[in-house]
Fold this protein.
Amino acid sequence: ARLGTGTADSSVHLRGDGTWAAAGGGKLLQIQYVNLTTEWTVSSTSEADLAGLTATITPASTSSKIICMLTGGVANNNSGSYMTLKLRRGNTLIAHRVTERNGPYDYQVATLNYVDSPSTTNATTYKIAANRNASGSSYLGINATTTSLVLMEIE
């Protein structure tokens, strides 16, 4: 049985209408990342950068998208409190997420994902900052679990 019209090779894909077409868009150009086993303690309602949780990428094109992904283990030391994790491009806040109001030392995994359009070919630094909503302490990288900040440039 013939699958489609045209010629198959490594630069094309079979479309739903049975024809071969050139693959395009969505190409992964580069990955920059940091994996750390640091445990950060967040005890202030004022925002502070989390030391070392930064990554820099130099986009190949001003039209590139940067997929930013943060993953780490979190916990709070008292019920009803939470931590806000913030993603910054330089000093500009571009995304944030609030951790769950879980019980004391009820561990969870926090993720913060964002697709950015920095519109530059200059080296661009992304960093994570955090603050609490109330007194007490919150933790990222609890018990020295691995926390990852990954940057992927997509064409």
Remarks:
- DSSP finds no helices and twelve strands in the chain.
- The first strand starts at residue 12 and ends at 14.
- The mean pLDDT is 89.
